[in-house]
Structures are given as structure tokens and as C-alpha cells.
């Protein structure tokens, strides 16, 4: 698989402090990469370096296999971005705003109708932009970023400030880009819940460092389950379990075991029943992705 973005030990230092700290970020072609981290973690600073807006203090950025320092213009011609709220001429329509950008880019005229269609603003294109909702403005920003037919789109917190319906529209739009238009997407957010349904891969940063980078499927797998048993005599049952090689603990009257597969659970239940224990409940509790995310971000359990 082709790597579209690769950073190597990327550092940005402000007043002796590393806002981005030896970041190794890797994005595959056709992926939606969710770039996650709490406010101030260094997402925007990283994105600005990826777009050549600020220079790294150390390290390297390669985009499309090329060095950003050497082939900056070549690379940026193939990249679209939405960083911070886009600015418009409010009294002008969506089409007129896009036309101004199209001329600068030298994109073909028909591209305006195409991008309006991609972001579902067809039908609204003649209205002055100042009457647009925030969600429509954000979608117009994406339309503008798509004018140059980019292969890579970089979106910094595109759902910030949107209501649930706006978030859903933005999500559908982003999901359509790799599938229907072959565009690789990097999208940042401070909320996993906004990203998890669309991202194939997530990179989580904390204090400028990458603390997790893998597929969302892998992240799900890490949210391992814990077995909980409610029994008539918990202390004796815990000892019995331990004799059978199942080491657990007692919390609020429940027995808790981690890393048990089905066969072990069956054996333990059988043994306890044979010893005369009454078993009231056997349940599995999986950590939610959000809990796991917070754990990673807060630096526990690594
Ligand atoms: N120009 C600058 N001068 C000094 N410090 C800066 C500058 N830009 C960013 N920082 C610092 O770098 C750190 C990372 O900021 P950054 O904006 O990249 O975080 P972020 O993850 O994008 O957060 P947010 O979601 O709040 O935008 C912060 O501590 C910030 O104060």
C-alpha cells in the first residue's frame, strides 16, 4: 500500500518546549486517518507543518513520497485543506466565492458544479453565503478545498461547533471522498466519537507525542472484556477459582477476571456449581472506546 504522508521524528519547538515531539505519523492511500488528541496536544501545529505553513524545528515530512522541503509546490498542488474557519465574501453566492478561488487555481469551470455536488450544496449555490448555516459554510470550505482536484485532503476539526445533524452530514461527506473520489483524508478532532465511525486508522497524540497509531479495528480489540460473576459466596468462590488457575479479584461483591476465553469461563462456572456455589450472574463488561481513548490520552495502561 502506498504511503501518502510520512513524518519522521517531526519536532516543533516553541520557547524551548516541544509542541510536537518526535512525531512519526503514517497515512496510507485511500484511508481516512483520524488525528486525535485533547486541545493543545499539537494537532494544528502538526497540520501546519504538513501543509508547509510553518517549518519544522527538526525531522522530516514526506508527502506522496517526496520531501516537503524540496518539492513543496509540487506537493501542495495535489493537497486540499480546511484549516480554521474558512473566510468568504458574505454578500457573494457560493458559486461566486468558488469562482474567485477557481480562477486563482486555474481549475476548469465545470469543476464548480462538481464540487457543489460532492458537498451537497447544489440548489443553494446562488444564495449569499452570509445566510448559510455553520454546517453549510464548512461544506463550502470543503468544496473550495476540492476545487483543485486534490489527492489528499487535510481537515482540521471540521466538525467543531456543528450540531448533531451537521456532524452527521460532514461525516457522510468525508466518508464519500475515498470511496467515490479516491481522495485520502486526514481529519483531526478532539472527540473519538466523531471520528470512530469514519476513520480506518487513528493516531492519538498527547503533549506532542504519538501515543497510539493503528487501525480502529485494533483499537476496538484493545478494549478487552472483563468477566464479572455474582455468586452466593464470593470469597470462597475466589479461592476455588484461583485453585483452578483463574486469578481474579473481588470488587463490590463481584468476582472479576480479565483475559478469560469462553472455554475457561465454562470450566470455572462448572467447577463453582459442582462445589455448591449459586451463580446469579455471569457478565462480560467491555471498556467503551471512549474509555480506552481517555486512558490512552491520560497516559495510563500503556
Ligand atoms: N505560535 C506559537 N507560539 C507558541 N506556542 C504555540 C504556538 N502555536 C502553538 N503553540 C503551543 O503548542 C501547543 C500545541 O498547540 P496546537 O494548537 O497545535 O494544539 P491542538 O492539538 O491543535 O489543540 P487545539 O485543538 O486547541 O487547536 C500548545 O501548547 C500551544 O500553546
UniProtKB/TrEMBL annotation:
Gene3D superfamilies: P-loop containing nucleotide triphosphate hydrolases (3.40.50.300)
Ranges for domain ABC transporter: 5-232
GO molecular function: ATP binding; ATP hydrolysis activity
Signal peptide coordinates: none
Listed InterPro entries: AAA+_ATPase (IPR003593), ABC_transporter-like_ATP-bd (IPR003439), ABC_transporter-like_CS (IPR017871), P-loop_NTPase (IPR027417)
Superkingdom: Bacteria
UniProt xrefs under Pfam families: ABC_tran
Keywords: ATP-binding, Nucleotide-binding, Transport
PANTHER family, per database record: ABC TRANSPORTER, ATP-BINDING PROTEIN
The protein's name: Spermidine/putrescine import ATP-binding protein potA
Species of provenance: Paenibacillus sabinae T27
Amino acid at each position: 500500500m502506498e504511503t501518502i504522508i510520512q513524518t519522521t521524528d517531526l519536532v516543533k519547538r516553541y520557547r524551548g518546549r516541544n509542541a510536537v515531539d518526535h512525531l512519526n505519523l503514517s497515512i496510507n492511500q485511500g484511508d481516512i486517518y483520524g488525528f486525535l488528541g485533547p486541545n493543545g496536544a499539537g494537532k494544528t501545529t502538526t497540520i501546519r507543518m504538513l501543509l508547509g505553513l510553518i517549518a519544522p524545528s527538526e525531522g522530516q515530512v514526506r508527502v506522496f513520497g517526496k520531501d516537503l522541503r524540496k518539492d513543496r509546490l509540487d506537493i501542495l498542488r495535489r493537497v486540499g485543506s480546511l484549516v480554521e474557519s474558512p473566510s468568504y465574501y458574505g454578500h457573494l453566492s457560493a458559486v461566486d466565492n468558488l469562482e474567485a478561488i477557481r480562477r486563482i487555481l486555474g481549475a476548469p469551470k465545470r469543476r464548480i458544479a462538481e464540487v457543489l455536488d460532492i458537498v451537497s450544496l447544489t440548489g443553494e449555490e446562488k444564495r449569499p453565503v452570509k445566510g448559510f448555516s455553520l454546517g453549510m459554510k464548512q461544506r463550502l470550505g470543503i468544496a473550495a478545498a476540492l476545487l483543485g482536484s486534490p489527492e489528499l485532503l487535510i481537515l482540521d476539526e471540521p466538525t467543531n461547533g456543528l450540531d448533531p445533524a451537521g456532524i452527521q452530514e460532514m461525516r457522510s461527506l468525508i466518508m464519500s471522498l475515498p470511496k467515490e473520489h479516491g481522495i485520502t483524508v486526514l481529519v483531526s478532532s478532539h472527540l473519538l466519537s466523531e471520528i470512530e465511525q469514519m476513520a480506518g486508522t487513528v493516531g492519538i497524540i498527547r503533549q506532542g507525542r504519538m501515543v497510539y497509531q493503528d487501525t480502529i479495528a485494533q483499537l476496538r480489540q484493545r478494549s478487552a472484556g472483563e468477566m464479572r460473576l455474582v455468586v452466593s459466596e464470593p470469597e470462597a468462590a475466589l479461592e476455588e477459582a484461583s485453585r483452578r488457575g483463574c486469578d481474579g479479584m473481588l470488587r463490590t461483591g463481584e468476582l472479576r477476571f480479565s483475559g478469560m476465553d469462553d472455554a475457561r469461563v465454562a470450566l470455572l462456572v462448572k467447577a463453582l456449581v459442582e462445589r455448591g456455589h449459586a451463580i446469579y450472574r455471569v457478565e462480560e463488561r467491555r471498556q467503551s472506546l471512549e474509555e480506552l481513548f481517555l486512558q490512552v490520552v491520560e497516559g495510563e495502561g500503556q
